[in-house]
Amino acid sequence: MEAAIDLLRQTLTSPWVYLLLFGLTTVDAIFPLVPAEAAVITATVLATGGEPNLALLLVVATLGAAAGDHLSYAVGRGGGSRKLDHSPVDSRRRAGSEWARRAVDRRGGMILVAARYVPGGRTAVTLTMGAVRYPLRSFLLFDLIGSVTWAFYCVLLGVFGGLAFERHPLHGILAGIGLSLVITLGLELIRWLRHHAHRRAARGVDREC
Fold it and tell me: What is the distance between the alpha carbons of residues 57 and 6, in angstroms, rounded to a whole number?
């Protein structure tokens, strides 16, 4: 285990780590299964020991997230969202696309900030915003807010893990990623409860009518 930690530390304290994190946070916008958040948290846990540079990690994570969002927006604007519309009606991709359209209609740019904390939400929302020709200037503004807050969120989780388990970086990494999962699941539970509450309320209105 110690050998694995040493190898991880050597990898993440290399100057190439910044390019790696930029790539992961960019690609994550198109392929949500890429572990960008876990990578930023892991690097930050090790950064509490001095390397890599914490401030630079924050900047790179922000820039990578913003670059990925703009790439996804461009794909949506170029017709990528139409592929989602032609997905099977009961598929998760189709459901995500329809959710994103409703969310953009209701909340506009702020959904771009919130969608980062919904599994797959970032991809669905950025593609949809491109497809509906959401104004690029407004997209840039809200995306910058979302990218900065997300980067701070990941770094804070990593700092928590690094400081709480200063002598055991693996425990710190697991704590940071675990806390991230708990927060995500909690937000998903709240969203699910609100959704079902609205559905029950709508059914009640229909019965009264």
Answer: 20
